[in-house]
Specification:
single chain; 217 residues; alpha/beta; 8-stranded parallel barrel; 11 helices; binds SN-glycerol-3-phosphate
Amino acid sequence: MKFFIDTANLAQIKEANDLGILDGVTTNPSLMAKEGIKGTEAVMQHYKTICEMVNGDISAEVISTDFAGIVEEGKKLAAIHKNIVVKVPMIKEGIKAIKWFTDNGIKTNCTLIFSAGQAILAAKAGATYVSPFIGRIDDSGWDGVELIAQIANIYSIQGFKTEILAASIRNALHIVKCAEAGADVCTCPLDSILGLLKHPLTDIGLAKFLEDAKKFA
Ligand code: G3P
């Protein structure tokens, strides 16, 4: 399973990248706004900076909602760097645009996926990735990880090549469960990635080893 970081914060991207386990980055308009980035030029420059920091797929989301606008915006985003993946919302015009990007060799990430039917449609259009939002499904009283397993099963039966990118990850257990359920990628906040490191017995065991090492130092 690939690890992406889900942020537009450069310090957090650097920290995750320095671990040596980072395969890519996802962003969205909310994450960009959180960093206080304003204006098209600044946004484009920010994506370029991220692409220069991380050697992997970098999702950059369109904000247009009509076919012509999505295609126009997506072409500009894709021109920033070869690793840009155009992130497109799961709407009718978005599906048409994903098909256009597929036919024109531009990688896509179909975002805001909340059902298996949506994931099938995105795969039919040739999306490189689909992004089911695990945490938001859990928040609404359903099981987000179950959706990952269902999509993985369908894609396997049908031979779809689209990769399942589990998004809206809220904790380290989500990452483990998505790995078990067959996600190809998990895009995670830095805290969830670092949460994988933690176990109290590791800390206790290391303290004991270091204490005992003093006996022969
Ligand atoms: O990748 C999608 C993700 O950023 C949404 O996460 O926590 O806002 O549901 P969240």
